[in-house]
Design goal:
The chain is mainly alpha-helical and 136 residues long. The chain has seven helices and two strands. A two-stranded antiparallel ribbon has the order 1-2. The protein is globular.
Amino acid sequence: MFVDFMRYLPDDLLFKVDIASMAHGLECRAPFLDHKLVEFIGRIPTDLKLRGFTTKYLLRRAFGEMLPAGNPAPAEDGVRSADRGMVPGELRGYLRETLLDPAALRRGYFAPESVRHSSKTTSPRAPTTATGSGRF
């Protein structure tokens, strides 16, 4: 959550929302970023915010009954700027080994199960040749 607040939100999501909203003359609000709400959420145990790969667990439990019956949850595509293949194959093992090192795990920055899952599901990038072709 710390990394999301310090990097992903300001450097990616909020930046993109700002550009898109200004391009269309819209005023956007981020109600879940109210500092009092963020401070409160920061004190909630992680297992109430995330269950396995179910995100927003507590939010879904708290407000699930307020949604109309038969209203399926929309599929979330996300807006991540980096694709799943952002770590080249030869570095994937090193990155996994580094993030799953006991010293790194003690810091608590990454959930070990998420690191294991991500390193299994990332697809390798096309190799870059001397002419500069390939995906990047």
